[in-house]
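pasting for the record
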Amino acid sequence: MIRFRNVVKRYQARGNDRWILRGLNAEFERGRSVGVLGHNGAGKSTLIRMISGAEDPDFGTIERDGKISWPIGFGGAISGTMTGHDACMFVSRLYNVDPIHVTSFVQDFSELGDYFFERAQNYSSGMKAKLNFGLSMAIDFDCYLIDEITAVGDKRFKAKCLEAFSERRRRSDIIMVSHSEGTIREYCDMGAILNDGHLTFYDDLDEAIFLYNKMME
């Protein structure tokens, strides 16, 4: 379970306050997968980073029970000075999992070959995405944070990514940001709308999508 207790987050934009959250008290319950809807600039990616711990609220606390992933697709997950092997060792220590399993899985899944032992700063964007995705699939998280579903590479590798992710989500929860209504419907069973600093949950996903579409008209 993920709990928000009076969480406040805002930015200064051209001298004005841009609110992400205005004192949110809420829970993301275990056993539910939530699709977060909101217009561009509403703060959906910031919300995901806050849940992961990559970004702090200005006020309030976020409590996390269980193993929460970093945002899949978040470019800051791996330092450019790390090799693929280094990243596996770092993540293994961070999440207290078997480094041999993680290294073996990621090396095989990412298909980076000799580049697995090169620094990530020498990777193409596609190679970095493959490494990031492989790392996220190497660990059984209780909740996966998705900032747009990520499937990279050619058609064969994309199918491989989606198959791996589909297997994980059978036993894990998801908090997902996506601009695709179809993707939200495929992966989530409830919705939440982020607008003007307020996050409103809807047990009925169809209701959330309907109200969001009306809001965007």
